[in-house]
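Action item from last week, closing it out:
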Amino acid sequence: MFKVIQRSVGPASLSLLTFKVYASQKKDSPPKTSVKVNELSLYSVPEGPSKYVEEPRTQLEESISHLRQYCQPYTSWCQEIYSQTEPKMQSLVQWGLDSYEYLQNAPPGFFPRLGVIGFAGIVGLLLARGSKIKKLVYPPGFMGVAASLYYPQQAIIFVQVSGEKLYDWGLRGYIVIEDLWKENFQKSGNMKNSPGNK
């Protein structure tokens, strides 16, 4: 152990010493001459006229170029679709992460309520045998009734918003049908009763 300490103390103690070094200018040095950029071999310009010659394309390069031109509309279409769907997918992933986090820290009694609502949907599916319309109406209806028992405030808000939307859709449909009726049937009725056709 003494040898290790002795060997490490020697170089460490030398690093603590300070030395001053003074540089002196030589009086016998020859005068410096500056070199121009053109005189350097790196920047030398070859003498004589130079001409750019493009190498001919190989068969592989030609086929790759043809393939790229053929695929360009499809790749631009894919890029456009990707740019449109990327925000939606990010929001969907964020919704999934939020849902997972909510289910990890679910409030007490959430899972039994969810089970009752799901069971109501299964009962609605069993009662809807035979008719496709019943299969579309009964399960969501039974699930909605079960959910409204557990979450009455959200059910009231949902019914109000859904009622307003249904009213708006009905009003728009009525206006479209009225316009079509006026365009098609009233014009033909006016032509039959016009004085020139008698």
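Closing note: The CA atoms of residues 63 and 69 lie 10 Å apart.
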